[in-house]
Amino acid sequence: MRHRLLAAGLGLALLVAGALGAGGAPRMTLLNTGLRIEHAWPHALAALGVAAGLAALAWAARVRAVRWVAGLAAVAAVAFALSRLVHRLDAGDAGVVERGILGSTRLGWRDVRRVDAGPDLILLWGPGDVQVRVETSGFSPEQRATLERTIARRVREARAPAARPGGP
User: Fold this and answer.
1) What pLDDT is recorded for position 65?
2) Are residues 72 and 100 both part of a single domain?
3) 3-state DSSP call for residue 40?
4) Which of 100, 91, 126, 129 is nearest to 39 (CA)?
5) Entry pTM
């Protein structure tokens, strides 16, 4: 009984502390040729703290249904932590590359057919069903504006007719 209470208290503390640290805006790095967006590793570490807290709560629970729910939530928190650790978006000269936990998507600026911007998402459409989804809910307004300007400039430059050598 005493061990379960201790585990529940520790699990709750880890859950709260991790939840406070796992959020936040991603890190945006402006490069000479574009920009890079990724989450700092402390965000992923905090999400792992949430997973550990949920696992401790699952162990401390007496009711089987509560154990299952907390255990599944812990697995989801680990997946979230891995996605924070792996996710990166590079917008450079050639195009945009989004790397995630399930792989990566590459879209050249010339191949961008349409850009849809919502309050928490920027969606770049390429040929066929190719799309790059940029989740912007954690962005500051300045980060969002920088990303939108970069995308607009790159797409505009890719669509502009190439200058002829030696001509006006």
Assistant:
1) 94
2) no
3) coil
4) 100
5) 0.77
Does residue 82 share a domain with residue 72? Answer: yes
**What is the token pair recorded at 66?**
């509560």
Question: For residue 124, what are the domain limits?
Answer: 88-160
Q: Residue 34: what pLDDT?
A: 87
Whether residue 5 sits in one domain with residue 63: yes
Q: Are 103 and 138 in the same domain? A: yes
Report the C-alpha gap between 28 and 61 in whole angstroms: 41
| Residue ranges of E strands in 48-152 | 88-91, 95-100, 103-108, 114-117, 121-125, 131-135
Q: With 60 as the cut, is the pLDDT of residue 168 above it?
A: no
Reading the block at residue 119, the tokens are 């309050």
The residue length of the chain stands at 168
What mean pLDDT is predicted for residues 65-79? 95
Q: Name the domain count of the chain.
A: 2
Residue entry with tokens 């991603």 = 26
**Residues 78 and 110 reside in one and the same domain:** no
